[in-house]
Amino acid sequence: MASDKYQQIAELLFEVEIQLRQLNYWQDALPSVEALSSELPFSHDILAFPQWLQFIFLPRMHELIEYAAPLPTVCAIAPYAEEYFKRGDVNVQTLLAHLTEIDTLLTDL
Questions:
Q1: Rounded CA gap, 9 and 22, in Å?
Q2: How many CB atoms lie within 10 A of CB 35?
Q3: What is the pLDDT of residue 26?
Q4: CB burial class (10 A; 0-12, 13-18, 19+) of residue 46?
Q5: 34, exposed or middle or buried, with CB in 10 Å at 0-12, 13-18, 19+?
Q6: Taking the C-alpha atoms of 4, 81, 16 and 109 in order, what is their torsion angle to the nearest 10 degrees?
Q7: How far apart are alpha carbons 106 and 72 in whole angstroms?
Q8: Which tens digit of pLDDT belongs to each residue from 7-50?
């Protein structure tokens, strides 16, 4: 059962990456070490939300899955994403749907 959850999350992470690439939010250059060391939620003081997804969230989640480490039991990325993207002119509905699904799978009810 747990391996199914890991597989579902892994597939959703892949879909999030695809969406970031399709929406032209994917970056080739890695941010500085300082930018990656922020301790604020979503690193909002230094990174844009898509950067946080790409350089913080995706790698950390892949690492947890790779080592079958315990997954977070509370996750609320989608509301932050909705707020971040609400003024944009890019169609992010698919990305938001994937993030909502990740939130749902990770949050213990």
A1: 20
A2: 16
A3: 97
A4: middle
A5: exposed
A6: 0
A7: 6
A8: 999 999 999 999 999 999 999 998 888 878 888 777 888 889 99
Take residue 87 and report the two structure tokens written for it.
Answer: 């003024």
Instruction: Determine the pLDDT at residue 95.
Output: 97
Backbone angles phi, psi at 19, to 5 degrees: -65, -45
DSSP class of residue 41? G
CB–CB of 94/19 below 8 Å?
A: yes
Give the end-to-end CA distance of the chain in Å, rounded to a whole number. Answer: 16
C-alpha to C-alpha distance for 19 and 31, rounded to whole angstroms: 20
Alpha-helical segments (H) within the chain: 2-22, 33-36, 49-52, 58-66, 77-85, 93-106
Q: In 10 A of CB 89, how many CB atoms?
A: 5
Alpha-helical segments (H) within 23-92: 33-36, 49-52, 58-66, 77-85
DSSP H helix total and E strand total for the chain: 6, 0
